[in-house]
Amino acid sequence: MSKVVIIGGGISGLSTAYYLAKGGAACTILESRPRLGGVIQTDHVEGCTIEAGPDSFLSAKPAALELIRDLGLADQVIGSNDSLRKTYVRKGGHLVPLPDGLMMMVPTKILPLVTTRLLSWSTKIRMGLELLRSPKAKAGDESVAQFIEEHYGAEAVDYLAEPLLSGIYGGSPSDLSVNSVLPRFVDLAKQYGSLTRGVLAQRAKAKSKTPSGTQPEPLFRTLKGGLGQMIDAITASIRGKVETRQVRAQAVERRAGGFRIRLDGDWMEADRLVVACEAHSGSRLLPGVDGRLAELLGAVPYSSSMTVALGFNTADFQTPPDGFGFLVPKRERRRLVACTWVGTKFSYRVPEGTVLARCFLGGTGDAAILQESDEAVLGAVTAELHEIAGFQAQPRFKRISRWPSSMAQYTVGHPERVSEIEARLAAIEGLHIAGNAYRGIGIPDCIRMGKQAAERILTVPAKA
Ligand SMILES: Cc1cc2nc3c(=O)[nH]c(=O)nc-3n(C[C@H](O)[C@H](O)[C@H](O)COP(=O)(O)OP(=O)(O)OC[C@H]3O[C@@H](n4cnc5c(N)ncnc54)[C@H](O)[C@@H]3O)c2cc1C
């Protein structure tokens, strides 16, 4: 039987291993950290379920839910509490709610747009006039900032696109590729000219196909006990079928009919290899296999991020915090990028009597925060929370998680880069990649890529 080795035991590598095992193929996972799951890590502190990395996945992308059902965890799935959804943005030192009816940065309702304090009158008028745009032929990629500014103006970039994308990518809209990050909006702009008209037309189509009385799907889903439940279930399911080794792969070379991987003073042979680690790490492994491929992987930038979970006594608040949380646009930012009130966004996460704030820091603009001490981080976050959210309670407990170079940045030119990566891979028999650096950064995308790598391995027989 051919030997399959997977480098990286995050959700991409674990999904590959899971679907290989399901298809009856053995494999080995090499993971340098002492635990599996990569950036997915759930901690339980004083009755709270705390996500150190991701907290949920988009419902609209099916791969995560499919895997979760396959693992027998369907009864553990919960949705975000969308009836309580309200997200604030800091503007001029105040928290202002995002206007109702926004689809990312596309306004779809007139009244909330007209009355919001988040945008000036000139931006509101510009957003209204956007409805009159006619389709324009456009070739090539551009930044999200250029694209959104052309449709809705610079203020929509600063107070909508920037804070929303910072929370997802930890990146700047002036670097991110619109073709990779907002491909649906690019298609709508091509077809309709106006993004707003495009989104409204799509909604009307979707509505006409939905039987009346159907409840809308929650935007995000997760598991009652946290996403770590998914990692535990995969680990349990592959036990005995998949070998896992805690070791860092250091280099890969080609050999007749396959590859050899250098580990600590040792070599391991593989007929098929799945590189499921971060692209920058893959780039360091692969120069001996294909220099240009290694260069292309190394050209995908990554941002570093940090999450800080703070638990407070509800009794210490005069009024409990409102909504899902808030975003701080770069124009108004010191260290805090965003904050989620976990107990409002998801049920089962926070016991009565506790307020849990999950704060995001770092991103492309502030990787330096990861080098600061826990005390300095805690001091900065608590002071900013007090000032922005207007309370004085001191945290009862804290959890700080640092994620260096973990979030791939799809910068302008990313689609061409990925096409070239895929073309080079197609020419190297037995080599596959999966991960957040290529065709989707979210958990469902990583699972889909892992599954596709497994399917290719299972369907193409190894050379004798
Ligand atoms: C703070 C944060 C919040 C996020 N929030 C969300 C969210 O809410 N929803 C969502 O859908 N997505 C979210 N994401 C994105 C998503 O979680 C990730 O894109 C996804 O989990 C990445 O999985 P992965 O397996 O590709 O990579 P990783 O999880 O980074 O795993 C890669 C693994 O490879 C290992 N490795 C690297 N090099 C080597 C080597 N040479 N040898 C052996 N092992 C190696 C690493 O130790 C690591 O464990 C978030 C990401 C972060 C960082």
Describe the structure.
- The chain is α+β, with helices and mostly antiparallel strands.
- The chain has three domains: 4-39 and 226-301 and 410-459, FAD/NAD(P)-binding domain (3-Layer(bba) Sandwich); 101-209, protoporphyrinogen ix oxidase, domain 3 (Orthogonal Bundle); 302-408, Alpha-Beta Complex (Polyamine Oxidase, Chain A, domain 2), CATH 3.90.660.
- Helix content is 36%, strand content 23%.
- The protein is built from 16 helices and 22 strands.
- The chain starts with a strand and ends in a 5-residue tail after the last helix.
- It binds flavin-adenine dinucleotide.
- Residues 7-13, 30-33, 38-40, 53-57, 248-249, 276-278, 281, 285, 305, 307, 403, 406-407, 435-436, 441-443, 446 line the site of flavin-adenine dinucleotide (FAD).
Main attributes of the structure:
single chain; 464 residues; alpha+beta; FAD/NAD(P)-binding domain; Polyamine Oxidase, Chain A, domain 2; 7-stranded mixed sheet; globular; binds flavin-adenine dinucleotide
Number of helices: 16
3D shape: globular
Spatial sequence of strands, sheet with the most strands: 8-7-18-19-20-17-21
Straight-line N-to-C gap: 10 Å
CATH-defined topology of the largest domain: FAD/NAD(P)-binding domain
CATH class of the largest domain: Alpha Beta
**What is the helix content?**
25-40%
Strand content: 15-25%
Number of strands: 22
**Can you tell me the residue ranges where pLDDT is under 50 for at least 5 consecutive residues?**
none
- Mean pLDDT, nearest integer? 95
Major sheet: size, sense and barrel closure? Answer: 7 strands, mixed
Bound molecules: flavin-adenine dinucleotide
